[in-house]
Amino acid sequence: xxxxxxxxxxxxxxxxxxxxxxxxxxxxxxxxxxxxxxxxxxxxxxxxxxxxxxxxxxxxxxxxxxxxxxxxxxxxxxxxxxxxxxxxxxxxxxxxxxxxxxxxxxxxxxxxxxxxxxxxxxxxxxxxxxxxxxxxxxxxxxxxxxxxxxxxxxxxxxxxxxxxxxxxxxxxxxxxxxxxxxxxxxxxxxxxxxxxxxxxxxxxxxxxxxxxxxxxxxxxxxxxxxxxxxxxxxxxxxxxxxxxxxxxxxxxxxxxxxxxxxxxxxxxxxxxxxxxxxxxxxxxxxxxx
Length: 289
Known about the structure:
The chain is mostly beta strands. It has strands spanning 2-5, 8-13, 16-22, 27-37, 42-44, 50-53, 61-65, 70-75, 81-86, 92-96, 101-105, 112-116, 124-126, 132-136, 141-145, 151-156, 163-168, 174-178, 183-187, 193-198, 207-213, 216-221, 226-230, 236-240, 250-251, 260-265, 271-276, 281-288.
């Protein structure tokens, strides 16, 4: 039910409140890439460039040199890379959707299987002690891999509905996005799962990747064509996107997106980067925070 308070419009869903206004971002702009690339998860390198996984039907990780947008091949030989994260030692890890594994990508070396996490495997995140968490949507599970490659299940079943996006807070509390339900779950390190927020949207796929950075939690709205911010009280706001499908830049309320999936933040925290999924894209969108 929508409730109006002054000029603000709220949607109450049980105990969860969605605040249907635009959050405090400024403008959306586009960096033109030198060639179109397929995109799923991406991660910022220590040097300030972006590494992008090529999605479930791909095999590569591509590099975007910033700010020019020049594309180069970083590695190949993966089996449907969905997400990327750096380990505590600086090595890069990739989830393999087709391979049901996490691969280790050492500098200058081809990827090698590091842990079996199937069936399939989705988003990745690093915790404070060096464990790598992974969502396994097809099994309604969240798993954790120790630095020496031992796999354990953090949570499975219950209220989890196709857990896809994943982000970890400094205290190792996990936020998990239900790809098809739009629900955001809070998961403690000992596996306690609770419903934290509800992201609005129509269509089969509601949430892509999550990102936690600088005390802020973001979610890509796949078929809503919007980027959301979720406050630590569970309030959901539209950070950018009118909801119309397109590629228009401008102020965050009027800008348009088309199946946004990838999220990453610049090292200085000034920009949120967004890439579209579903087909190769040559447009890296940049939201000024």
